[in-house]
Amino acid sequence: MSPFLFSCQFMLANLLIYSYLKNITTSEACGIEIIRQSTFKGPSTATMSVKQGVSATWSSNTNISAETVSATLGFNVTKSYEVTDTYQIRVPAGKTYTIIARPYYKVYNFDVWYDPLIGWDSKVGYGYAAKPVGVCFYYYE
């Protein structure tokens, strides 16, 4: 097969099929990555401030592009976003508290559909994207 013919077939295949997102739902969740951790002994007022860049994440079991997902959801799924927040708690005398900060995400779940130029659209998979929007704080003794 000539390189020209292969190139034309590849271009035609890409023109005849395009993918898009459908059935987008949103939720919120705390991540598992620890972005800050500190221990405080009482009596005291423990304060933790966070100002940190956190990467958005995304995944799909299809070959849909990050650009398509980003354009549909309205944010760049390959970018880092700054999250900022402060947490304060009173630590009683004789106690020791450890405070942990984790990223807080807005999570988008979606179905991936293909639209051939000829024929019916079909669902071909699914995926998710998570945008960092804040900080989750936890403490324990």
Describe this structure in words.
- This protein is of the alpha+beta class.
- The protein has one domain (19-140): Proaerolysin, Chain A, domain 3.
- Helix content is 16%, strand content 62%.
- The strands form 2 sheets. Strands 1, 2, 4, 6 and 7 form a 5-stranded antiparallel sheet that branches.
- The longest helix has 14 residues, at 3-16.
- The model is unreliable at 2-16 (pLDDT under 50).
Question: What can be said about this structure in brief?
Answer:
With 141 residues, the chain is of the alpha+beta class. It has two helices and seven strands. The chain has a single domain (19-140), classed as Beta Complex (Proaerolysin, Chain A, domain 3), CATH 2.170.15.20.
Overall number of structural domains? 1
Give the termini separation.
Answer: 69 Å
User: What is the helical fraction, as a range of percent?
Assistant: 10-25%
Helix-strand topology string: HEEEEHEEE
Mean pLDDT: 91
Largest sheet: 5 strands, antiparallel
β-strand percent reads over 45%
Content-based structural category: alpha+beta
Given as residue ranges, the uncertain stretches (5+ residues, pLDDT < 50) are 2-16
Would you tell me which CATH topology applies?
Proaerolysin, Chain A, domain 3
Radius of gyration: 23 Å
Number of helices: 2
Q: Name the CATH architecture.
A: Beta Complex
CATH class: Mainly Beta
List descriptors:
single chain; 141 residues; alpha+beta; two-stranded antiparallel sheet; 7 strands; rod-shaped
